[in-house]
Design goal:
The complex is a heterodimer of chains A (114) and B (113).
Chain A lengths: L4 E3 L2 E4 L5 E6 L6 E7 L6 E7 L2 E4 L8 E4 L6 E5 L8 E8 L8 E2 L3 E5 L1
Parallel strand pairs in A: 2-11
Antiparallel strand pairs in A: 1-3, 3-8, 4-5, 4-9, 5-6, 7-8, 9-10, 9-11
Chain B lengths: L3 E2 L4 E5 L4 E7 L6 E7 L6 E7 L4 E4 L2 E6 L4 E6 L8 E9 L2 E7 L3 E6 L1
Parallel strand pairs in B: 2-11
Antiparallel strand pairs in B: 1-3, 3-8, 4-5, 4-9, 6-7, 7-8, 9-10, 9-11
Classes of the chains: A mainly beta (114), B mainly beta (113).
């Protein structure tokens, strides 16, 4: 069974530029999560989807971050415009049915904003 | 306000000995706790979990203990192996949305041969 796929693996941009990350969850997984992990800290949940609906986005900085999960499968996370403090690893995770189940993480996208 | 704290950034133990990783939480609404392991350049991998109705859960070499009155949990690894060297994250959630986990900042475990 293929794991959670993310691309790109690395991205370097300048502040005020835009960037997008893509996630393909494990086939059949209904729940998808995006996390931000700043160096030296634990992952912080940004947004949680159940199929193509948003369950929780309370920690998503909505003035610059957006995410969508069209057709309840793949998802994209966008930052526009990026700030220096957005430098982090962006992790995508999925779980089979509901929020209470084990989350399977992708390898993450490492973003550096200069 | 950090609701889940791992106060030891690093821990070093000898192969074959016990590793004990600690985690404290402040939010009494948390009722489900998890431990994840993370290797460099990889995403976290689920290790073991415990519900607040239990005080211990065991899976092979890994045991998690929960002390609700102290708002403290610990992960015991016995015996420790060099392959256990990784960053360990403690996470907590509430049953109203068990998927919304709050993570600690992690403890880097080094197991020396």
């Amino acid at each position: 069974e293929a794991g959670v796929a993310q691309s790109p693996r690395y991205k370097i941009i300048e502040k005020r530029q835009s960037v997008a990350f893509w996630c393909n969850p494990i086939s059949g997984h209904a729940t998808l999560y995006w996390y931000q992990q700043i160096l030296g800290q634990g992952p912080k949940l940004l947004i949680q989807f159940q199929n193509n609906g948003v369950v929780d986005d309370s920690q998503l900085p909505k003035d610059r971050f957006s995410a969508e999960r069209l057709k309840g499968v793949d998802s994209t996370l966008k930052i526009q415009p990026a700030k220096l403090e957005d430098s982090a690893v962006y992790l995508c995770a999925s779980s089979p049915r509901g929020p209470g189940e084990t989350q399977y993480f992708g390898p993450g996208t490492r973003l550096l904003v200069l | 306000d950090q609701q889940v704290k791992q106060n030891s950034p690093s821990l070093s133990v000898q192969e074959g000995r016990i590793s004990i990783l600690n985690c404290d939480y402040t939010n009494s609404m948390f009722d489900y706790f998890l431990w994840y392991k993370k290797y460099p350049a990889e995403g976290p991998t689920f290790l073991i979990s415990i519900s607040s109705i239990k005080d211990k859960n065991e899976d092979g070499r890994f045991t998690v203990f929960l002390n609700k009155s102290a708002k403290h949990l610990s992960l015991h690894i016995v015996p420790s192996q060099p392959g256990d060297s990784a960053v360990y994250f403690c996470a907590a959630s509430h049953s109203t949305n068990a998927g919304k986990s709050t993570f600690g900042d992690g403890t880097t475990l080094t197991v020396k041969p």
